[in-house]
Amino acid sequence: MNRIIAGRQPVMEALRAGTEIEKVVFLIGVHGRVIDDIKSLALKRNVLVAEIARQEFRDIASDATTQGVVALVSGQQQYVELETLLHIPGERNQNGLLLILDEIEDPHNLGALVRTAECAGVHGVIIPKHHSASVTSAVAKASAGAVEHMAIAEVTNIVNTIKALKEKGYWIIGLESTGIRLYTEADYRTPTAIVVGSEGKGIRRLVKEQCDFLVKIPLHGKIASLNASVAGALAMYEAAKQRSTS
Amino acid sequence: MNRIIAGRQPVMEALRAGTEIEKVVFLIGVHGRVIDDIKSLALKRNVLVAEIARQEFRDIASDATTQGVVALVSGQQQYVELETLLHIPGERNQNGLLLILDEIEDPHNLGALVRTAECAGVHGVIIPKHHSASVTSAVAKASAGAVEHMAIAEVTNIVNTIKALKEKGYWIIGLESTGIRLYTEADYRTPTAIVVGSEGKGIRRLVKEQCDFLVKIPLHGKIASLNASVAGALAMYEAAKQRSTS
User: Which of A45, A111, B59, B161 has a CA positioned 20 to 30 A from the CA of residue A120?
Assistant: First the structure.
């Protein structure tokens, strides 16, 4: 089954990342600098390019978020095995920094979190197989193409995964409004996994119990919570800062 | 003309904030704890409540993001005058912390930025009248109701507004990928306005030239930029942190 990458930036990123693309399809008449860049990069990569009419184009990608360009990719999103993901920090001579997303259901949030993870230098993202958004084309678009670069593992059981991470020396830091310490007071320089819960419900109880620390983000206004993707971003960039200055 | 606040949390926040609501309208059959809370709070506030059938409900709110409840508010979003907004920091005995959004066009981003601003203790948000998303019901929803609490001023000319702020002692910090300093190296404890540009184009040149500092957020991956609402969140929370520890 084909997977579709939709949107100019995501298609560009996929080409840059060397993703196995079968064909790049343009809506007839689209133009612009990025379109030209995509065409020349596709040429360089020996990727087929086609221009098709609006009706045909709609049959491939029904939504309005394609910006007139989609890439057809063989197979589904390539999730990586957890074992493979855990080798990445060592290959970069770094202590692992992972993001665990406990049942994020909104594709926009999942995409935004993967995008920020890539920018913050996170090595891998772990999501549960069930009750979670999967990496669809909507997620790829919201991630601005970051799903093409970031190692993402789908696991059956987050609790067991956390136990396995702990055995490998990871510290588990959960973002939780009831946390006692501030998120800026934790140490993210050792091997660390940051856990972000779903927007409505937060981290599930059994997952929370596996966390070494629960940290909170201070709220100075009249709103009870931050968006999950903003909360995750703040923790990931706190980790990035501590690691760059240590 | 009536304004509509759509969604459970936004309606709840509007009731809590004492917004002048004419009526809260439920889709027939919706239920749940938040719905009960809205009903009892509306009762306490002497706000009319109605349950209507799906077809009628759709005539009021056509999109799928209402979660079965909307509040009808008299008049448009109450923007505040810049002068009024600038009095808020003094009333709280704080140095001003403002957010200037230079042509953010995506309602989701505008809403997310207002939500984070409220959580980070920002005193007011300044947006341009033209080429910017206005505060619509979609923005209110994306802000999780924060637009009801946050002072938002719409100005004709951002450059002139910045000049006026500088005369009042504000330092202007622009988020810009070409910035030389890191966003964590600037001082946000003095009266400060943080400028965030549009996702595609960044801060406009004339606005950029008015900034006292341009700061960048380090990017450790293969993606060229962060989402505007994430970038703004990182700067706002850096400011909040510096202010809480000084």
Answer: A45
